[in-house]
């Protein structure tokens, strides 16, 4: 892990991984969604609305997976003081929040014809909403500490403490009775028909690759931003020091216009 603590070494890796993940993920996402829209038959109970599955499920997976990534990066920052761990967590937060929002939006659209309501305060929906708020709080805190020069350990603590929401979301449909269906995928078992399962798995993998590409793009942008800020600080310090090394005009016998005094 510490091999890539050097930003230059990390950037050399990210430069070829980013397009690979982006284009690979994009092809898989487009192909799986086309498969789900054009090939997969309507569900016996949910009809055509089942097709939203191929966006809703990957979005829910990446909403939870994103915060898991923040927690891991935060732990690396606090335990090993990895120099890029804080940047990694910040890079994950925004796309994680976006996918959590997509999960809630598509869930509401799916729930309206299925449950007869846009929103239900059940365990799964409520805990996903809490996750969305956690993302917002983490982003605001991370930006504030970066802007004010605060310690990155502060948002890292939130990243680790907030990880408690991930198992709550995962087990919410088991712990509390609600309108939300129980888990369809468990260890070694699937309640999903293979006609839906394969395009769903490809869609989830494709969105995951896109997520990884976006995180790498954001990390590269954050590193570049830090490098620019460091150069500007050095330039400002050089300009502050330079006048002390220049003799006043009246000592050299040269007027401000550049002409010698009599």
From TrEMBL:
This one is known as: Heme exporter protein C
Picking any one GO molecular function of the record gives:
heme binding
Q: Which residues form the Cytochrome c assembly protein domain?
A: 5-180
Q: Which GO terms describe its cellular component?
A: plasma membrane
- Give the family from UniProt: Belongs to the CcmC/CycZ/HelC family.
The record's Pfam families line, in alphabetical order, gives:
Cytochrom_C_asm
Q: Which organism is it from?
A: Erythrobacter longus
Q: Briefly, what is this protein's role?
A: Required for the export of heme to the periplasm for the biogenesis of c-type cytochromes.
Q: How does it sit in the membrane?
A: Multi-pass membrane protein
